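User: Here's a chain of 344 residues. Predict its fold as tokens.
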Amino acid sequence: MKTSDFYYDLPQELIAQTPLDRRDGSRLMVLDKTTGATRHLHFYDLPSLLRPGDCLVLNDSRVLPARLLGRREPTGGAAEVLLLADRGDKVWECLVRPGKKLREGARISFGDGLLTAEVAKVCEGGNRLIRFQYDGIFLELLERLGRMPLPPYIKAELQDPERYQTVYSREVGSAAAPTAGLHFTQELLRQVRDMGVELAYVTLHVGLGTFRPVQEAEITDHEMHAEFCTISQTTADAINRTKTRGGRVICVGTTSCRTIESWAAEDGTLRASSGWTSIYIYPGYRFKVLDGLITNFHLPESTLIMLVSALAGREHVLAAYQEAVREGYRFFSFGDAMFIGDTM
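Assistant: Prediction complete.
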């Protein structure tokens, strides 16, 4: 199967640059995964698509304000550092700009010296290992000095950083938001829970690889990035209980989907698990646990649109996307959402 098989034409003006004032006011396209039939609702209508006994699986990862703007020492030239992964002992793997100026031994100052850093190593592929020096708690400094690492297709400044966090985020570690969850409010979560839908939380820390385009012509030649994820015993029990009683497991976002599918046994059962996953889901994949998916609209030729196509069929998905374009839906991180499942 070709990467080009997952292309669709998207006008630039449909890429959402800012979140809506009301989180659950976004539009919600309903796609029946079997028939391809569609309906048009709003996200606050989600309870009408759920049934008592279903289980919603949500990713509670919280985005790290991982973009740091500083000055190179001693010249004072601008420097930008994007934190990717904590390697321990105050060392982080990072992306940097300008790369030519930030070689091994280069020093950077942030926040008038509240935080300083030195490039310890230039990694294969261009990433840097950077050792930070500071007094106090690193995460508190990041909250003060860091900025949200918004996707490259968002050009507008984010006025409220909390709008790039889900209302249930708690485990800090993502370089990008699990954006399907941005539509939920606390009131909507209460409403869903009160109608007999179980809420279960997993953690997958989203890496910047989620935005990496597929360069290979054949989708099977693409090497998937790895991300760290965790399933607690409480969540495993909730999902197993749902499957036993005949309820549906509906994942909020592709990250939640990838987490539970990574650790599920062949019979669909789960137990507490933690580790790195590089699961790559594309058409032909047999889902072990997931029955339905709540997700945003994804980039053309991306691994995420391939995952969605594995669930509902490439033809159905591309037809739904073309309909969304015609109807003026908002796309990507701050855009509208889809509910994909057995909806009839």
